[in-house]
Amino acid sequence: MVCSFNLLILILKMPTVLVIEGYKFKFFSNEDNELPHVHIIKGDGNAKFWLAPACHEEYSYGFNVRERRDIKEFVISNRKL
Q1: Which terminus, N or C, of the chain has the lesser number of Cβ atoms within 10 Å?
Q2: Total of domains in the chain
């Protein structure tokens, strides 16, 4: 599955709540009754991680395994923000 252009535009418009090592963590509070989650973008990559009930990856495009692991660690260590 490839991230649609419309979804990417929506993600880019979301407010950035945290920036770590160039990763921009974005949050939008009105996403059709979805559980808490963040969208992460850097360069051509984008990902979505759920914050509850446990931190896990919904999708990731354009990130390698190391980057995905780093993103998950950043999400876990900052998810209470």
Answers
A1: N
A2: 1
